[in-house]
Amino acid sequence: MALGLYLALVASVLIAYIVFHVTRKFGTLIFHGIFGLVVFWLLNYFNVLKVPLDFVTFIIAAFGGVLGVALVVLFSALGIPL
Predict the structure, then answer these.
(1) How far apart are CA 30 and CA 13, in angstroms?
(2) Could you tell me if 71 and 78 are in contact, meaning their C-beta atoms sit under 8 angstroms apart?
(3) If you average pLDDT over residues 40-57, what whole number do you get?
(4) Could you write out the DSSP letters of every residue in 8-68?
(5) Which pTM was predicted?
(6) Which of 3, 16, 18, 44 is the most buried (most CB within 10 A)?
(7) 3-state DSSP call for residue 75?
(8) Do the beta carbons of residue 43 and residue 17 sit within 8 Å?
């Protein structure tokens, strides 16, 4: 009986560890993606540059962070479609 209890404890700690790290990674991706969409929206709102607001630009901003946002803005300025 004690062995099953120890196995359950180890399994629950392992699952908690995995959930914590996955959630932390997704939180960062969501934060970067929302930041990118806000920057793109502001650029469109003030007619500075026409940047498409779609899934591709969100993914580039989420994985690339500020560098991804700068890359999308550069591509839009040069007229390169994404």
Answers:
(1) 26
(2) no
(3) 92
(4) HHHHHHHHHHHHHHHHHHHHHHHHHHHHHHHHHHHHHHTTS-----SHHHHHHHHHHHHHH
(5) 0.72
(6) 44
(7) helix
(8) no
Measured in degrees and rounded to the nearest 5, phi and psi for residue 6 equal -65, -40
**CA–CA separation, 13 vs 70, rounded Å?**
40
Give 47: exposed, middle or buried? Use CB within 10 Å, 0-12, 13-18, 19+: exposed
State the pLDDT at residue 72: 93
CA 75: distance to chain centroid? Answer: 20
Residue 5: what pLDDT?
A: 87
And the tokens for 6? 């120890």
Asked whether 71 and 64 are in contact (CB, 8 A), the reply is: yes
